[in-house]
Amino acid sequence: ISAPAGCLTTWTAVSANTSAVQLSPASGTGRSQVELFMPANTGGPRSTFVTIAGETASITQTGQ
Description:
The protein contains no helices and 6 strands. The protein has 64 residues and is an all-beta fold. It has a 4-stranded antiparallel sheet, with no helix packed on it. Strand 5 and strand 6 form a beta hairpin. The mean pLDDT is 88.
């Protein structure tokens, strides 16, 4: 029996600004979870893009 389409797809997770958003794990195969970690922001608002499995999203964090 073969796996359903997409179950064996290799993917990556990339942050455009790793000081604003860190991703873990950075890659995998098939279904999984990716954790986004945003260190405390003591400055002004900051934004970056993350791309996971070819899908890009904008992440914004307000400052203090």
